[in-house]
Amino acid sequence: MKNIFISLFSILFIFACSSVETVDVQETKTVDLTSSESDSGSSMSEVDIGEPHTKVFFDYDDDTLREDSLSDLLAISRLMKENSRYTLLVEGHADERGTREYNLALSERRAKAVEDFLVASGVSSFNIEVVGYGEEKPLDVASNESAWSKNRRAELFFIK
Amino acid sequence: MIRVFYLIFINLFLYSELILEITESANQPVKIAVLQKNDNSFKGQQIVSIISNDLKRTGEFEVLSSDQLLSIPLNESEVIQRDWLLLDVDSIIFIETNEDDNNLDINYSIFNISYNETEDKRKVLGLPDGIRQSSHYVSDGIYEFFFGIEGVSSTKLMYVMKNSDIHRLMISDADGFNEQILLKSNKSIISPAWSSDAEDIAYVSFENNRAQVFTQNLASGKREIILSSNSSVSSPAWSPNKRYLALTSTMDGNSEIYLVELKTKKISRLTENMSIDTEPAWSTDGRKIIFTSDRAGSPQIYEIDIRTKIKRRLTTEGNYNARASYLNKSEIVFVHRGAENFNIAKLNLKTRDLEVLTSTQNDESPCIAPNGNVIIYATKDGSLSYLAGVNISSKVKFRLPALYGELKEPAWSPFLR
């Protein structure tokens, strides 16, 4: 069970710029998931899975695997078939352009495209987890094609 | 319960995130002065200041400061018309405050200079500790008198502030005051949404390393996860009657739109398609939902009748149209990609007239003020996201730059009256 630290803030605002502004007292509840207390409960969010084993990249608004990704994915497929205890986490990502929710769906389809390829090559789908992060975890925060092409990706991690 | 009182002096971080810069004013702003009537009290001055700031923030008023005036009348009978005609002033707003232990009422009148007479008199009944909110109601009344559209100074905004990898879901008055943190997380928070009564919110949190939808009660802070599953759940939208949450999930293997009845947790599926279906938004009568789908190869806006499940495509111009909301019965607002940039656009469903409303780049997450006339959206300057806005009728454009960190994912509250 998640241990959520709930703090009660009562904030007095004193406006400095124009001295005639007023003072209001407001009460609100803040749910704080960043405090150390909350970490003990939500272990999943704090597992460090390290660097991805492989990255594959995609074209704009596209979830089709590119030819240059296939040899890497076939190598992953061989590894997994040789060792059926391996579990692969596939994280899909999108560049910042367009809307966050559409990008979330698009990024999950990219991860799914990787899964579908591996399953078609003989890997069991039970050993693959997919997750979409949309545009929330860019590798490069710049707003240019070089950054966007790095961010349109799927990252593959061996987690067990 | 433990109460922790924080006294924050001159803490820029907490109260003035929403500084507003008008980037394009109205062609002919209404020139006014806001004055205390028969009084010169500190409280009256506060009220005048709040109202003046509200009206300036619309970009549709030019509010003269006292040092610009030629004479300062205490009431209507002292107005020297010539002085005001020289300054080209349209009207004087006289503010009168009546206060006792339990009430703080504000009377205001709008005195037209050319007619040399009072055109309108109104009153806002308030509480002594609600001086800001009462003043905002006065501002909204003045706005409505001049433009025939309800003002939105008394509403609230919700948004996500990101600062050194901490994501804060915030809420504040429309003028940036009373900023409060609703949720603080190390992981992304997106798609905040208000319930129609402004008592609850919904949002997507990645706190468990996957997109999940939560609802949260504003007063109690109580949270509830909606549709706990191993698939991603996102894009929550409350139905106007608050009975349902429309959302997107990949629980059936592909991104589809579902309705969740909140009391019973009964789920019904609205879309069935191999493509991406997401970003549901309700019509005001709760009968229809518009959503984004790439079933035709690129993201476009579709509408579905909830009862008959009949769908129709609404957008045809451009290869990227997404995250739509109804502006009114016949118009929608959404993210549109023209030649290169992503902008906020408006489509008239009857005339098929498409109007691009913004001139920034990489615009996203448009939200509509409850008066249906102002849009705030997120955009980027370099690598930093900030909020910007546009007034549909007056074409006023403005920006709300963050002093620290980034601002994104705005959501405008309903009217709070």
Task: Outline the structure in words.
- The complex is a heterodimer of chains A (160) and B (417).
- Chain A has helices at 36-41, 67-82, 100-120, 145-151, and strands at residues 5-13, 25-32, 54-57, 88-92, 128-132, 153-158.
- In chain A, 31% of the residues lie in helices and 23% in strands.
- Chain A is globular and about 55 Å long.
- Residues 1-26 and 37-45 of chain A have low confidence and may be disordered.
- Chain A contains four helices and six strands.
- Chain A has two domains: 5-44, no CATH class; 48-158, 2-Layer Sandwich (60s Ribosomal Protein L30, Chain: A).
- Chain A has a four-stranded mixed β-sheet. Chain A has a two-stranded antiparallel ribbon with strand order 1-2.
- With 160 residues, chain A is an alpha+beta fold.
- Chain B has 417 residues and is mainly beta.
- Chain B has two domains: 28-147, TolB, N-terminal domain (Rossmann fold, 3-Layer(aba) Sandwich); 156-412, TolB, C-terminal domain (Neuraminidase, 6 Propeller).
- Chain B has helices spanning 12-15, 42-57, 81-86, 131-147, and strands spanning 4-8, 21-24, 30-36, 61-63, 91-99, 104-112, 117-126, 156-163, 166-173, 180-185, 189-194, 200-205, 212-217, 223-226, 233-238, 244-249, 256-261, 267-269, 277-282, 288-293, 300-305, 311-313, 321-326, 331-337, 342-348, 354-356, 364-368, 374-381, 384-391, 397-400, 406-412.
- At the A-B interface, strand 1, strand 2 and helix 3 of A face strand 1, helix 2 and strand 10 of B.
Short summary:
The complex is a heterodimer of chains A (160) and B (417). Chain A is an alpha+beta fold.
Q: Per CATH, which architecture of the largest domain in chain A?
A: 2-Layer Sandwich
Terminal CA distance of chain B reads: 30 Å
> Largest sheet of chain A at a glance?
4 strands, mixed
CATH homologous superfamily placement of the largest domain in chain B: TolB, C-terminal domain
Work out the count of structural domains of chain B. Answer: 2
Structural class of chain B: mainly beta
The proportion of residues forming helix of chain B, as a percent range, comes to: 10-25%
- Separation of termini of chain A? 24 Å
By oligomeric state, this entry counts as heterodimer
Percent of residues in β-strands of chain B = over 45%
CATH topology of the largest domain in chain A, anyone? Answer: 60s Ribosomal Protein L30, Chain: A
- Architecture of the largest domain in chain B, according to CATH? 6 Propeller
Q: How do the strands line up in the largest sheet of chain B?
A: 2-30-29-28-27
Q: Which pair of chains has the greatest number of interface residues, and how are they split between the two chains?
A: A-B, 52 and 77 residues
Spans of chain B of at least 5 consecutive residues whose pLDDT stays below 50 are 1-17
Structural class call of chain A reads alpha+beta
Strand tally of chain B, please?
A: 31
List the uncertain runs of chain A.
1-26, 37-45
What's the mean pLDDT score of chain B? 92
Order the strands across the largest sheet of chain A as they lie in space.
Answer: 3-6-4-5
